[in-house]
Amino acid sequence: MAEQKSILNDMNDRSREVFRRVVEGYLDSGEPVGSRTLTRLMSEKVSAATIRNVMQDLEYMGLLDSPHVSAGRIPTQRGLRMFVDGLLEVSDLDANERQKIDATVGNGGDPSTLLDRIGSALSLATQGASLVLAPKHEAPIKHIEFVALGHDRALVVLVFGDGHVENRIFTPPPGQTPSSMREAANFLNALLEGKTLSEVKSVVAREIEARRQQIDGLARALVESGAAIWEGEGGLHDRLIVRGRSNLIGADEADLDRIRELFDDLERKRDIAEFLELTEDGEGVRIFIGSENKLFSLSGSSLVVSPYMNADRKIIGAVGVIGPTRLNYGRIVPIVDYTAQLVGRMLSDRR
């Protein structure tokens, strides 16, 4: 970012204006912006030849690209990044858009239903695909039970002290019997009542080590496997809500193959859930463009994302919008920011 600010500072006013108008024109239309178009937009009267020279300099700097020999310029990913960090003007959220989001979200329903409506409202407001990373449930555990569903599938039922119930499917170690599952559940219920899921793994590991001789080998393997699933991939897979995929598919028919590839990644959920958790590094809206992340490197998409917080100002989840790199960032950023704040307030009020 420091290098980008230095480049902007080193530009003269004409170069900076040409760069800004090329990016804004591309974000608005998705088409290359030519020198003749810019002659009508510039704040000073400048010839098309002069503008072409400026654009050539910007292209040499890696900020613009020419998809065809004489078809004008579009911003590179580096150029978009510099524009977003240094020149983007973010508008205030329109009152009508705020009212539409509020009306779509409503006030009733449990947190899961609320977050589903949040995803739909965000997708509708932005005409993009929305992503919602739901918070982990951190209430103390009241009861745990394992249920065999087949030779390679088992269900763990978690009953929390606040009445919340979660059912999670995982692959148990081989050779489990109804007896070993009861033994594992009894062991955990005696040990973990009153503790949250985030406290489970370390407590289980310590107790298994201390009481290894007392615990049947199969039950021990089941406990270890189950605890790992609760804290690891099961939690990530269950906490992602994706809405509005059709908006992305209709955005650009020429990019359908790349968009389908992106959706294949979204179906796996692991990468995007881990990626969204990067928002926990700090507050506020963050913008990730194209190949800045492995998930979007081939699809040419961008993500605008913001974390949301509980009443204790702890980041517990995130909301975001995914779309083409030529998103209207100035409009999308305040929508995502407002929605994140709205989610935080509504979840805090339900405590």
Report on the architecture of this protein.
- The protein folds into 3 domains: 2-86, Winged helix-like DNA-binding domain superfamily/Winged helix DNA-binding domain (Arc Repressor Mutant, subunit A), CATH 1.10.10; 95-135 and 240-349, GAF domain (Beta-Lactamase, 2-Layer Sandwich), CATH 3.30.450.40; 141-236, Enolase-like, domain 1.
- Helices cover 50% and strands 17% of the residues.
- It is built from 15 helices and 10 strands.
- Helix 9 (200-210) runs antiparallel to helix 10 (217-231).
- The longest helix has 21 residues, at 329-349.
- The two termini are 39 Å apart.
- Negative regulator of class I heat shock genes (grpE-dnaK-dnaJ and groELS operons). Prevents heat-shock induction of these operons.
- Belongs to the HrcA family.
Q: Portion of residues in helices?
A: 40-55%
- Structural category is alpha+beta
Total of domains: 3
Shape: elongated
Count the E strands: 10
Q: Taking strands numbered 1, 2, ... along the chain, how are they ordered across the largest sheet?
A: 7-3-10-9-8
Q: List the total number of helices.
A: 15
Radius of gyration: 25 Å
N-to-C SSE string, H for helix and E for strand = HHHHEEHHHEEEEHHHHEHHHEEEH
Known CATH architecture of the largest domain: 2-Layer Sandwich
Poorly predicted parts: 231-238
The first-level CATH class name of the largest domain: Alpha Beta
Give the CATH superfamily of the largest domain.
GAF domain
- The rounded distance between the terminal residues' Cα atoms is 39 Å
Largest sheet: 5 strands, antiparallel
**CATH fold-type name of the largest domain:** Beta-Lactamase
Write down the overall mean pLDDT.
Answer: 78
Q: Indicate the proportion of strand residues.
A: 15-25%
